[in-house]
Amino acid sequence: MSKNILVIRTSLRNNSNSDLLADSFIKGAESAGNHVEDITLKEKTIAFCKGCLACQKTKQCVIHDDAVKIADQMCSADVIVFATPIYYYEMSGQMKTILDRANSLFARDYAFREIYLLTTAAEDEAYVPEKAVSGLNGWIDCFEKAALAGTVFAGGVGGAGDIANHPMLQKAYEMGMNV
């Protein structure tokens, strides 16, 4: 059965390694017959959450910027895939901000059940993405119908495009095929 997959790219860098990892996932997911909607936070206007919690009553954020549409796209997706570079052993600030701004989803009838995380970093030790995974799990814990379904980490890729020929590109492709 075909799934509606939303890929959210959080890197602001052109030719970013996390974007190239996302490309592999998307190719796999599309080759398996899924519908993929692909968005990037690059050039989007996304303000910080005010913590007012009005969204819990209105099911919409009071800040009218690009995050409102992205939250709507998240709400209707069966699967959400986040692609982020690891900065200081954590997800990008852009990713954290969009997670905070998706607070309105808590009060809504969201469709997503599977969440995936694709990460890249200059460092290549296995522990590098642990805090990003933990941070995303903290968000997922608020959505009892959803779960972290998989992660891919490509380390040792500091410069733009360094991920070319990295073995994790194939793993991301296979993960996309098996969504």
UniProtKB/TrEMBL annotation:
Keywords per UniProt? Flavoprotein, FMN
Transmembrane helix: is it a keyword of this entry?
A: no
Show the InterPro entries listed in the entry. Flavoprotein-like_sf (IPR029039), FMN_Rdtase-like_dom (IPR005025), ISF_SsuE-like (IPR051796)
Q: TM spans, by residue?
A: none
Any one Gene Ontology MF annotation carried by this entry is: oxidoreductase activity
Specify the NADPH-dependent FMN reductase-like domain's residue ranges: 4-104
Q: What is this protein called?
A: Flavodoxin family protein
Organism, per UniProt? Merdimmobilis hominis
